[in-house]
Design a protein that fits this description.
Length: 418
Amino acid sequence: MGIQTPSVRKGLLQLIFSGSFMKRWNDKLRPVELIEVDKQAHKMIAAYALFILNSEQLSFEEKNDLAEEIILGGIFDYLYRLVITDIKPPVFYQIKSNPDHYRQLTKWVLGQIEPRVQPLGKDFWNKFCSYLEEPDDGTLGRRILSAAHIFASSWEFGLIKSINPGDMELKEIEDNFRDQMFKYRDINGMEDLIKGSQQGVSGLLNLCGRLRFQKRWSQTPRIPETSVLGHMFIVACFAYFFSMSVNACPCRRQNNFFAGLIHDLPELLTRDIISPVKKSVQTIGDLIKEYETYELEKRVFTLLRDSKYENLAHRLRYFLGSDGITEFDSTVVLNNKVVKVSWDELQNLYNENVYDPKDGYLLKVCDNLAAFIEAYTATRNGITNEQLQHAQWKIRNFYQNQPFLEGVHIGALLADFD
């Protein structure tokens, strides 16, 4: 038997999206609904920033290995969390402290998840199982993920703290967050996050956290509502899975995940402008892009002007595009210059780590898929209107006539959504 080629199926896409239903802190008074997929997005953006700050002295191969560990660990943690959603954190940590109890819980979790992720192949499944067998912070990648998790949860806690004055748990929760943050203060960047500065990486992550307040399809009722922040994480996961399906090299897989994770960052500055407005007149789309670029420089990259954040700013620019290149263009780096390439060129000529490939075309496919599932799910939940129906029809029709992506037919995948 040959090696199984990873494939992406309907069940996996819906599983990733299901975090949009999961409410957090649902035993506390909340100023807005806090949703699991939003927290995971914030966590992974924090993990990416910490990865950049802690990998500058590593070799090219060590950086790739660390990035892969962080991405897979983030996905594995999320999948695990989707199943144990009803277990409060203090109870889960008690279970985790008892190896036998944790092993029993993990065995059950794996049984729930296996049918959905099986099409991704044995290698992915074996890595998932191995990751859960060793739950401790034994590596830099694990410690970065744990630090990012504590930061994102603590950031949410800051939103609800002042409106729950009579809650007896708050002091214990706050003390635990403080102690956990200090546990990881040796990681580059964590001192900034502990201080809560409005500059540097702390300022950037505070801005990113606000994208959970910004709802997509703001003029269209939906169940569930989805935020720009959560959408970015969903697109990032989709991009990684499809990268596996087209046999993307490790660097391309990682770039696709991280690019998906921040691809809507400019919407901090312009809000979620719907596609018909962007495309109504060519000059309007160009004007919006020009404004986004200006505001990114003014309000985002100014936070990272300190020389110690130079590499982070450089990578964000690469993923978001500049000088006529957009986040949805496929790019490589040739002779230290970013060059736009076609899908075929990326797949057949530049699918190697040395070219630092980023798959903008695939990212756009995943962005459209996420939008389709948002509309499809709302319709299945009883929300029927012209905008949702038209969005589904438009995306189905477009991909029905598009060529395969190296064996991946998006039209056939969409056909599974009856």
